[in-house]
């Protein structure tokens, strides 16, 4: 939900405690193919995942702010296949972040193309660095999430925050077509952020315990029983697959810039922590 380097800069500049979250969401929306793109090479972004089908099995079409047509249906002739850099983040407002993703079909699992999407997701998450990513955040409307929390990431939070969040390290998880359900009615409120809305935070209420079922990248069924911070990460990532970002769920009047994260909440706002 926020990138570790920005936290480091903030701490160095303001000598304040580390922020609460390190969940990161970074992904690339498909290429904008328009005449204007050729005038400005920086605006030319190549299709990385030409196999993604629309709801009727056809190509996925997007329009940008200038109504330039973006077609996710094949490599741009003579260019795309040579591009090797990792995807960039898709920012809030782009349709791919606000529409439901589709499930990965059984015959797609293990394919070279789906494997590339997963590998890119993992690489981008670790490069950020972050603890979670959803496929729509690289412009891929598929139900795939990856998450991982390490001792290093956790070390950036204070001991008090770690205990309050019930946060523990866990190994890399890759989940296709995840289905989430709550395991109790108990909830907690903590600040969340997202690089699709970079530089801001807001308090979100989440369930403390959840169960997630789905498929691993090998196609075998998996089940995760999670609580505390891992449960929050899973809920945050699964929201992305439904076209929901955290700002759609924030507690009113808690939205703020990163530099104001430590300032008190307005009167009448619920207290941060377990309810």
UniProtKB/TrEMBL annotation:
Its EC number is 3.5.1.88. One of its GO terms (biological process) is translation. Keywords: Chloroplast, Hydrolase, Metal-binding, Plastid, Protein biosynthesis, Transit peptide. It is found in: Plastid, Chloroplast. InterPro entries: Peptide_deformylase (IPR023635), Peptide_deformylase_sf (IPR036821). GO terms for cellular component: chloroplast; mitochondrion. Gene3D superfamilies: Peptide deformylase. It catalyses: N-terminal N-formyl-L-methionyl-[peptide] + H2O = N-terminal L-methionyl-[peptide] + formate. Signal peptide: none annotated. GO terms for molecular function: metal ion binding; peptide deformylase activity. It is an enzyme of class 3 (hydrolase). Belongs to the polypeptide deformylase family. Removes the formyl group from the N-terminal Met of newly synthesized proteins. This is Peptide deformylase.
């Amino acid at each position: 939900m926020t990138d570790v380097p920005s936290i480091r800069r903030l701490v160095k500049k303001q000598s304040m405690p580390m922020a609460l979250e390190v969940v990161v969401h970074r992904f690339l929306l498909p290429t904008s193919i328009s005449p204007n793109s050729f005038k400005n090479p920086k605006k030319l972004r190549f299709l990385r995942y030409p196999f993604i089908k629309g709801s009727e099995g056809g190509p996925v079409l997007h329009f940008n702010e200038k109504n330039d047509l973006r077609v996710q249906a094949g490599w741009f002739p003579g260019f795309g296949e040579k591009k090797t850099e990792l995807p960039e983040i898709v920012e809030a407002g782009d349709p791919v972040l606000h529409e439901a993703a589709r499930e990965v079909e059984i015959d797609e699992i293990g394919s070279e193309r789906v494997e590339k999407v997963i590998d890119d997701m993992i690489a981008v998450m670790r490069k950020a660095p972050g603890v979670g990513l959803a496929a729509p955040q690289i412009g891929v409307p598929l139900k795939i999430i990856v998450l991982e929390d390490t001792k290093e990431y956790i070390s950036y939070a204070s001991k008090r925050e770690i205990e309050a969040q019930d946060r523990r390290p866990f190994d890399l998880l890759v989940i296709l077509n995840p289905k989430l359900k709550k395991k109790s009615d108990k909830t907690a409120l903590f600040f969340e952020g997202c690089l699709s809305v970079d530089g801001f935070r807001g308090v979100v209420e989440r369930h403390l315990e959840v169960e997630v079922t789905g498929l691993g990248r090998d196609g075998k069924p998996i089940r995760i029983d999670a609580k505390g911070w891992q449960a929050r990460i899973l809920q945050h990532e699964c929201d992305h697959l439904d076209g929901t970002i955290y700002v759609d769920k924030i507690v009113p009047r808690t939205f703020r810039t990163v530099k104001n994260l430590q300032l008190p909440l307005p009167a009448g706002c619920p207290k941060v922590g377990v309810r």
